[in-house]
Amino acid sequence: MRFLLRRLGFFVLTLWAALTLNFFVPRFMPGDPVAALTARTRGRVSRDALEQMLTSFGYKPDQNLFVQYVEYLGNMFTGDWGRSIGGQLGEPVTGLIGQALPWTLGLVGITTVLAFALGTMIGTVAGWRRGGWLDSLLPPVFVVTSALPVFWVALMLIFAFSMNAGSVLPGTFNYDNSIVPGFSPGFVGSVLQHAVLPAATLLITLIGGWILTMRNNMITTLAEDYVRMGRAKGLSPRRVMYGYAARNAVLPNLTGFAMSLGFVVSGAVLIEFVFSYNGVGYLFYNSVQNVDYPLMQALFMLFTVAVLAALLIVDIATVWLDPRARSADAGGR
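The structure corresponding to this sequence follows.
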C-alpha cells in the first residue's frame, strides 16, 4: 500500500508540474492567437473584431495571468477544455480530439504493440542463439534501421509504392474521400490500405530498438545462476529460454514499452504530417501552427496523463511480476 501511495504521489506531483509548464510555455512563445488569425485573414478583419470573436470562445488576454492559471487548472480537471481558437474556430476541443484519437490509436497503437511483440521474440531467439547466423545478421541491420530518420523512411516508401505508375498503396489521408465512412467492406478496406505505408514506416523505425535491447538483455540474463540451475536440472531448452531467461530479460523493457504506449496517444507527428494522416499528432501540429491555446493545452494534458498512467501501471506490474521488486519494497518500509 505504501508503494502505491508513493507512486500516486509522484503521479500527482508530476502531473501538476507538467500542467503548469503547459500553461506558461505557450504564452511565452512568439506570437498570439490574434496575430495568427490576422495572418490567416490577411488583414481583412480588424484586430479588435478578432479579439472580440476570440473572447466569445474563452480567450481572455486582458485577464490576470494567475486568475487564468487557476481557471485553467480547474477546467483541465473538470473536462471543460473550451473551444478551438485556431484553424477550426469555435469547434469544441473535446470533439476535435475525439475525432482524431481513434485514428492515432488504431495506427500508432497497433503498430507499437506489434513492433514490441515481434522485436521481443526475435531478440529472444537472437540472444539465445548468440553467435548464430540470426545473431550475426540482425544487429548490424537494425542498428541502421533504428538510426534512419522517420520522415526519410516515410518519403522513401511513398516514392517506392505510391508515386510510381501502377502503384496501389495511397500515400495520403486516412481513407478514400469518395467512400462514405461506415462499417462497410469498402470503407474498412480503404482505411487499411491507407494505413499500410505509415504503419510500415513506424514498424521499420521501431522494431530494431526492441530487438537489440532484448538481445542484450538475454545475453546478460543467460549468465545468471538461476538459468544455469535450470539447465543443470535437465529442463528443456525451450522452457529455460522462455520460462527462465526471457521472462526475466523482458522486465527492463516493460518501462520502455509503457512509455511507448503512453506516447501512442500523442501520435507520430512526423509520420502523420508526411502522410497527411488526420490523427492526434497532426492535430497537435496544426494547434501549434495556429497558436491554438485551448487545443494545445488539452492535447498536452492528454499526452502527459497517458505517459504517467502507463508508467504507474508498469510499476505495479513489475512489482507483481518480479519477486525481487516486492522484496526491495518491503525492505524499504
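The domain at 93-331 is CATH 1.10.3720.10 (MetI-like fold).
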